[in-house]
Specification:
The chain has helices at about 5, 15-20, 30-35, 50-60, 65-75, 85-95, 105-110, 120-130; strands at about 15, 40-45, 80, 100. It is mainly α and about 140 residues long.
Length: about 140
């Protein structure tokens, strides 16, 4: 819910990413509230752009649909990708000069803009790690923003 408050710039969630998010039944209510609160954030995949569509189909052979859609669109629109799945996107982004934000980048920006405290970030980091995801640090002070 904080992303649109942290980043004032227009933000979009591609339909493939939305579909992946909605598969998390434990977060279904939160996700529904998010999209109801920010209806303009939803974005259809630009199927009419053959370069993007071809790139998307190629990428889905190597990674998930959400990451593939984001990377294909960003490659041809010069948008910024936000992802917690650095393992899948980092090399592709570097190869194609795509800017990307990590979970840690977003937490740093949230602190900078006064949307989260360090304690709130640490709580978030603890929850993410406990859920089985990987982050480079166990607390925000150990990360160089």
């Amino acid at each position: 819910m904080l992303l649109p408050k942290i980043y004032q710039e227009p933000m979009r969630v591609l339909e493939q990413v939305e579909a992946e998010l909605r598969r998390y039944s434990s977060k279904a209510v939160d996700i529904e509230i998010f999209f109801q609160s920010y209806p303009d954030i939803q974005m259809s995949f630009p199927h009419s752009n053959m370069d993007i569509t071809k790139e998307y189909l190629d990428l889905t052979q190597k990674m998930g649909k959400g990451e593939s859609a984001c990377l294909a669109v960003a490659r041809y629109t010069h948008d910024i990708v936000a992802s917690s799945n650095i393992k899948d996107i980092q090399i592709y982004c570097q190869d194609h000069q795509i800017k990307y934000l990590t979970t840690m980048d977003i937490l740093c920006e949230a602190i900078k803009r006064g949307q989260l405290s360090k304690d709130e970030c640490n709580h978030f980091i603890t929850k993410v790690i406990a859920a089985g995801s990987r982050l480079p640090v166990s607390e925000i002070d150990l990360y160089s923003c």
